[in-house]
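Extended Data, record Pentatricopeptide repeat protein
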Amino acid sequence: DLLSRAGRLYEAEKFITSMPCEPNVCVWMSLLGACRAYRDVRRGELAAKRVLALEPDNAAAYVLLSNIYGSAGMCDTKVRLDEARLENRVAKLPARTWIEVSNKVHSFTVNDRRHPQIADVEAELGRLSRLMEDAGYVPEDGLGVCLCGHAEKLAIAYGLISTVPDTPLRVR
């Protein structure tokens, strides 16, 4: 895990493949997560293949590899992998995030439009995205707008429009 997090993916792979015991899912998922962070398609494919050989229903492996493909601009491959995950009936539970505002807990899920103030939340996300673009921000994974419905972003945007400036926001 330390080698992977440090971006030393070649060394991490060598370490894993030379282990005296068979690497488990946690070991391969650690490498796969780092491959997503460092956009290493080849090692990501290897790690995902090993995870899925051990746990064919591991949705996280599909999602991480799909994200690797997306950030590498391999959209067709990403779509094929997402379709394969669905065909294999490997369900991915949607991410859920909570924020407390005025002693009330609000819950947000990716692309969930049921919150009563979702239009205002989305408008705030758009405003923040424009501010970031104007400041020169370029998303490192190339997904930018695709992730505007990300649960944490929705919760933070809600917190910003629902509190006075400089109020600390606690997102879970």
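Summary. The chain has a mean pLDDT of 89.
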